[in-house]
Specification:
binds flavin-adenine dinucleotide, four-stranded antiparallel beta sheet, three-stranded mixed beta sheet, about 15% strand, about 400 residues, Butyryl-CoA Dehydrogenase, subunit A, domain 2, alpha+beta, single chain, Butyryl-CoA Dehydrogenase, subunit A, domain 3, Butyryl-Coa Dehydrogenase, subunit A, domain 1
């Protein structure tokens, strides 16, 4: 019996997903590159993605993340973890299976706190994969890793709120199908620090919204984009405030738990693929009379990669197990720990795989350079390392607080 028992249905989904990856997703990567190159537009929506989505849906590999059985298979976090890991192996798989960030987090928020109208207008098409969404919290003018700093003003005026401010890094904001934003701002700057913020559902084409530009990531123009958006007197009906005024901070905490661990699961998939590529390359390239794989340092990297992957996988499964059994709040230390560990370790493995590939490793002939760029952003997105470490340290120090004051 394994430490974290794999249920029969989880095992079935794993084998179906692995089959789908081999038969459709990996072969689609080259087609995707070709279609993107031919279009010459970084935000083009290539037809191969819609083909993958249709096939994933046909196979029942759709909305795998969604905990509610009405919307997806209703898997637990522990059951979903290995599936997200498998999807993490290709940059196409999550979107193909309608399991991409930030839509997954936004769908969970709309499920929990959306009105009937939000569900009809946005949640259903998001679950159907016909639209996409973005989450706009971070602002260029303030240090947004402390979410209480967020400054966007949301001022009540009759039946509406009027929004003014500037957001950036709204991932998905340039996606051709992005129709809706979940926006966090301040409704009451005079309220207690964690009650000042509210979240609102805002169509991306609302009058007064201007998408200024896409922010490149290490020079990559990501297809879904990371948008900088200006809000100029944008009117939002009061009925589009999620959960109620002053609930924004609480929603952001609820939203980020599952989203964070999904990133970690996918990072492990990227690390596994990098290790696989590293081994293949090390065995096939010969220098100074022997394959690279016969050098002790390369063997060391391979062994360390295997050890590290097993460690982060176990920590991820533990966090997922705790989320399922005692809830996201009780699991917060483990979620914070894996949010730091998984991207850092996966980055190290990808970096070494790049080294083994020589110059080719930094080109787009292999998926490693893009994986590195993406993983590096995960040390910032959904909270920088230091903020998660701060939370873990606070928990640890709390145990000894009384000793210090004695
Ligand atoms: C690719 C990408 C996608 C993103 N997607 C989204 C999105 O969809 N929606 C969204 O709203 N945001 C998104 N973000 C933004 C991300 O969440 C923020 O960049 C992050 O929260 C940090 O905020 P900041 O950039 O304002 O950095 P700051 O708050 O200015 O912090 C700067 C640095 O200070 C350090 N730091 C902070 N606090 C401490 C501390 N207590 N001790 C020591 N050091 C500290 C950290 O190293 C941090 O990186 C994305 C970012 C990236 C790179």
């Amino acid at each position: 019996m394994s430490l974290f028992e794999v249920t029969e249905r989880a095992r079935q989904y794993q084998s179906q997903l692995l089959e789908f990856m081999d038969s459709h997703v990996y072969p689609a990567e080259a087609v995707y590159d070709e279609q993107m190159r031919a279009a010459g537009d970084p935000h083009f929506h290539p037809p191969v993605l819609e083909e993958l989505k249709a096939e994933a849906r046909r196979r029942g590999l759709w909305n795998l993340f969604h905990p509610h059985p009405d919307w997806g298979p209703g898997l637990t976090n522990l059951e979903y973890a290995p599936l997200a890991e498998i999807m993490g192996r290709s940059h196409l798989a999550s979107e193909a299976c309608n399991c991409s960030a930030p839509d997954t987090g936004n769908m969970e928020v709309l499920t929990l706190f959306g009105t009937d109208e939000h569900k009809e207008r946005y949640l259903k098409p998001l679950l159907d994969g016909t639209i996409r969404s973005a989450f706009a919290m971070t602002e260029p003018q303030v240090a947004s890793s402390d979410a209480t700093n967020v400054e966007m003003s949301m001022v009540r005026d009759g039946d509406d709120y009027v929004l003014n401010g500037r957001k950036w890094f709204a991932s998905n904001g340039m996606h051709r199908n992005c129709k809706v934003l979940i926006v966090m701002g301040k409704t009451d700057p005079g309220a207690p620090v964690h009650r000042q913020q509210s979240m609102m559902v805002v169509p991306i084409d609302a009058p007064g919204i201007t998408v200024i530009r896409n922010l490149p990531v290490f020079g990559y123009q990501d297809r879904e984009g990371h948008a900088e958006i200006v809000f100029n007197d944008v009117r939002v009906p009061a009925s589009d405030v999620l959960k109620g005024e002053g609930e924004g901070f609480a929603i952001s905490q609820a939203r980020l738990g599952p989203g964070r661990i999904h990133h970690c699961m996918r990072s492990i998939g990227m690390a596994e693929r990098a290790l696989e590529l590293m081994c293949r390359r090390a065995q096939s390239r010969v220098t100074f009379g022997k394959p690279l794989s016969e050098n002790a340092n390369i063997q060391d990297w391979i062994a360390e990669a295997r050890i590290d992957i097993e460690m982060i996988r176990l920590l991820t499964l533990k966090a997922a197990h705790l989320m399922d059994t005692v809830g996201n709040k009780e699991a917060r230390t483990e979620i914070a720990a894996i949010k730091v560990a998984a991207p850092n370790i996966a980055l190290k493995i990808v970096d070494r795989a790049i080294q083994v590939h020589g110059g080719g490793g930094v080109t787009d002939d292999f998926p490693l350079a893009m994986a590195w760029a993406h993983l590096r952003t995960l040390r910032l997105a959904d909270g920088p390392d230091e903020v998660h470490k701060r939370a873990i340290a606070k928990q640890e120090l709390r145990k000894y607080r009384n000793e210090a004051s004695a």
